[in-house]
Write a structure and sequence with these properties.
Number of strands: 15
Structural class: alpha/beta
GO molecular function: 3'-tRNA processing endoribonuclease activity
Number of domains: 1
Strand content: 15-25%
CATH superfamily: Ribonuclease Z/Hydroxyacylglutathione hydrolase-like
Radius of gyration: 20 Å
Largest sheet: 8 strands, mixed
Protein name: Ribonuclease BN
Keywords: Endonuclease, Hydrolase, Nuclease
Strand order of the largest sheet: 6-5-4-3-2-1-14-15
CATH topology: Metallo-beta-lactamase, Chain A
CATH class: Alpha Beta
EC number: 3.1.-.-
Organism: Corynebacterium comes
Shape: globular
């Protein structure tokens, strides 16, 4: 088996928007990354169109061993139903269920933004902050008509035999608290998944008010890749990514953000900009993180906006001397320790 590891950037745009094909760059789908090791595939996040991109990349659902969610914002999970329901059709294979691993229930409401002009209440008071396992259950319930039809008429097995959802348990020694200490300093990366090909470790990153929010590192016999998830500059991520062969880090153009919300109320605009400032990373900051971690290569993804000019992202090279990659959707990026190859889209 060829274990040369690489990622496929199924989608490289971030944010809950539709990024059209503008005059500056090609169309980008929602954030999603396939980690390929030998014949196995591990999926990180399920942004818009990622299920279709998975097929376009020539990947087979029978290769899928795990789905990992960095956090539960919609731009990272909106295509999860596609993988769960269409992937269910691979039922009958003789392997373990596909692991669906992500944050657990927050456990309490986040603070209301101080810009609020009145009372703000959760949409679903009975389950306002469902975690990964509960979200998967809710999704299967939402599609109960489809599932019942296929189980009773087509004799499909229960989807629970194909997918097994699991909440990530944050180690108690981190001191994590969703409101008071969402990103404790000095977190020791902890293992969340291991099989014969990969060991996946996680750390807590800074993406308030979402908590917990994670970054993931995949270590293989041939190399490593670290995927930041959504985060502001964070020492925990630097520690997780130390010496990694490839760091995929989010990036946002803050100048774009300042001009992008002219059509909303002043309170919403200020709350949104405050969120971007405290929860995301500029290209220049991403370069600083890569340098601090000693990453061998840096690739920017989860690009906001998804149609910015390439020179916006080039700022990552101001503080980082290694290769800076700005992949398009469906690019192949090797993370083998002995190569710096970037393959074109297939």
């Amino acid at each position: 088996m060829n274990l040369h590891p690489y990622v496929v950037t199924l989608g490289t745009a971030g944010g809950p928007r539709f990024w059209g094909a503008g005059n500056q760059t090609g169309h980008r789908c929602g954030i999603s990354t396939a980690v390929v090791v030998g014949d196995a595939v591990y999926l990180v996040d399920c942004g818009r169109a990622s299920a279709s991109q998975f097929a376009a990349a020539g990947l087979n659902p029978n290769q899928l061993r795990g789905i990992f969610l960095t956090h539960l914002h919609s731009d990272h999970t909106v295509d999860l139903p596609g993988f769960l329901l269409f992937g269910w059709m691979m039922a009958g294979r003789q392997t373990e269920p596909v692991a669906v691993i992500g944050p657990g229930d927050r456990g309490m409401l986040p603070p209301v933004n101080p810009n609020a002009l009145g009372t703000v209440s959760p949409q679903f008071p009975d389950a306002p902050t469902a975690g990964t396992a509960k979200m998967v259950e809710h999704l299967f319930r939402a599609y109960s008509t489809d599932i019942t039809d296929r189980m009773l008429d087509s004799l499909r097995p229960s989807p629970d035999t194909v997918f097994k959802a699991k909440d990530i348990k944050v180690p108690a020694e981190t001191g994590f608290h969703p409101n008071h200490n969402p990103t404790p300093e000095g977190v020791e990366p902890f293992v969340i998944f291991r099989d014969d090909l990969v060991t996946v470790t996680a750390t807590l990153v800074a993406h308030p008010p979402i908590a917990p929010a994670f970054a993931f590192r995949f270590d293989t016999a041939a190399g490593s890749v670290t995927i930041s998830g959504d985060t502001a500059p964070c020492a925990n991520l630097v520690r997780l990514a130390e010496g990694t062969d490839l760091l995929l880090h989010e990036a946002i153009d803050m100048e774009w953000a300042a001009a992008a919300y002219a059509d909303v109320s002043a309170a919403t605009r200020e709350a949104t900009l405050e969120h971007h400032r405290k929860s995301h990373t500029t290209p220049e900051q991403a370069g600083q993180i890569a340098a601090a971690a000693g990453a061998r290569r840096l690739a920017l993804h989860h690009l906001v906006p998804g149609n910015a000019a390439p020179e916006v992202w080039a700022q990552a090279g101001r503080h980082y001397d290694g290769p800076v990659l700005i992949p398009q959707d469906l690019d192949h990026l090797s993370f083998a320790a002995t190569t710096s190859t970037v393959s074109p889209r297939i």
